[in-house]
Specification:
Layout lengths: L2 H13 L1 H8 L6 H6 L19 H6 L4 E5 L4 E5 L10 H10 L16 H14 L3 E6 L10 H4 L3 E6 L4 H9 L4 E6 L6 E6 L4 E5 L10 E2 L5 H6 L16
Parallel strand pairs: 1-3, 5-7
Antiparallel strand pairs: 1-2, 3-4, 4-6, 5-6, 7-8
Helix pairs in contact: 1-2
Length: about 240
Amino acid sequence: MGPRALSVLALSGLLGAGSLALFLRPTSAPAATRAALPAPTARAVTVAVPPPMATPESRFNALPALSVENQTSRETQQLKLYDVSGRVDEAAATRLDALLCDARDPKHHQTGRIDRRTLQLIYKAAYHFGSYEVEVVSAYRKPGRHREGPHGTGAAVDFRLRNVTAALLASFLRDQPRTGVGVYTHPKTQYVHLDVREHSFHWLDASPPRRRWREKSIGARDLVVRDGSFTPALDLPEGLATTP
């Protein structure tokens, strides 16, 4: 009998058979037993993926082009104003400069630079009302015998939106800070004058075509406060004003 067997017998005498069996129990199942155990069941995990958010680029790119007509030259173009980053597309604005020229002399059109902020407010109004046809009565007018006021500097545009009354259009534009807004109410005019300026001034004009009567001021009491709140982001189309 070897030394290991003698040690086991001695230990059996000290602990008892039951205790010895517990002491000698293997600490892990034999390989055959382990192989017979069922494998753990894999659980399918569903991860909710949020839909992609619209980027500023996609939102500006989704803005439709406007159909802009110079009612003197009868020329019309389909144009967007913003690039995908939300900046005024200077190439498109330059095309608008040419389109909104002084065409009173059919043989010699005079082109000026239309104020970019004036263009932005026209587009903002069109998107607000969902009216994508702009009828321009007068934009740039080359100064000559008459100084032409803000039209002579390209700051002013007289226009209509298809299927939007002049009164409704003027009311919306009067809410924009640092603007000059005149609504022409004669049955043969029915258009809105818009210009950009440091201090707002709003008026009514019932003059018939090619006549000028005295304007009636309709300024609101909060114009100074409203003008003081101006930021360039306010000129962007609604819903995009917080976009950098």
